[in-house]
Write a structure and sequence with these properties.
The protein is of the alpha/beta class and 252 residues long. Helices cover 31% and strands 25% of the residues. The chain has 8 helices and 13 strands. The chain has helices spanning 11-16, 26-34, 92-105, 125-138, 153-158, 180-183, 202-211, 225-239, and strands at 3-5, 21-22, 42-46, 51-61, 64-74, 81-86, 109-114, 146-147, 151-152, 166-169, 178-179, 189-194, 214-217. The strands form 2 sheets. Strands 6, 7, 8, 9, 10, 11, 12 and 13 form an 8-stranded parallel sheet that branches. A hairpin with a 2-residue loop joins strand 4 and strand 5.
């Protein structure tokens, strides 16, 4: 079965109000045509907010498609959430790889930032969001991760948002910081700062500490930026594993 994305409105509201005929657009409309799906074929549609609908194709012509919603499943968000703040690597393909795999593994929010040692200063949010949507559909996830616009590291430090259960993954030469798994709080939002290939500067680490971020290790291996970010996702999700049961491994 195929999962398609409908980002126009909330499917639960449409379904419960009786407005059960929708039309796919953009890449999903193209995908519907490429698959040569016909009237009466069954598909599944998600809005990325926890709703997945079983649906039948009413029409799939070169210029128009009509989908009728038949059955609604609504999934609850886990008791924990993962927000990765990351300095994108110079090779944007590696960042796209991280977005894809983190979506598969389970991530809620991503904030790219530019720091003192950053090697990339430009990102195409439209392209990156397509990577997230594709990964969500491929992995049968009911939630689409939120991708924030890039910000400076300084703006994160100057924001008025309070940090709770926040960590900064830092390659401490003295190796004195604890492993993330030993200090991460459970069943609550978790925010993790992942620095560039050149790591955070000492000034940035000091600023993060003052902001409430706790320095942590991700293990004894030296990891690339995108690998470190993905490792952090896995660690937090494994610690909170009972929270992430119940998502569909199959749509049938």
């Amino acid at each position: 079965m195929h999962l398609f994305y409908y980002g126009v409105s909330n499917l639960q509201i449409s379904f419960n109000s009786g407005d059960r005929d929708i039309s796919l657009s953009g890449d999903d409309a193209t995908h519907l045509k490429v698959l040569r799906m016909r009237q009466g074929d069954t598909i599944y549609v998600t809005d990325g907010t926890g709703n997945i609908c079983k649906a039948d194709i009413q029409e799939n012509s070169p210029k128009f498609n009509s989908i009728r919603l038949l059955d609604l499943r609504t999934y609850e968000r886990p008791g924990h959430s993962i927000h990765i703040m990351i300095a994108p690597p110079k090779n944007v393909a590696r960042f796209e790889w991280f977005l894809e795999k983190a979506t598969e593994a389970g991530i809620d929010e991503i904030t790219p930032f530019f720091s003192e040692h950053s090697e990339r200063a430009v990102l195409r949010s439209d392209r990156l969001n397509k990577v997230l949507v594709s990964a969500m559909k491929q992995s049968l996830k009911p939630f689409l991760p939120k991708l924030n616009e890039p910000v400076s590291f300084k703006s994160i430090m100057n924001s008025k948002n309070q940090v709770s259960n926040g960590f900064i993954a830092w390659l401490d030469r003295q190796n004195e910081q604890q492993h993330l798994k030993a200090v991460c709080g459970l069943h609550q939002p978790t925010t993790i700062l992942i620095g560039p290939e050149g790591d955070f500067s000492q000034e940035e680490v000091d600023a993060a500490k003052l902001k409430g971020f706790v320095p942590v290790s991700l293990g004894s291996s030296r990891l690339r930026t995108e690998t470190a970010a993905l490792a952090a996702c896995f660690i937090v999700n494994i610690l909170n594993e009972p929270d992430v049961t119940g998502y569909p491994l199959s749509l049938e």
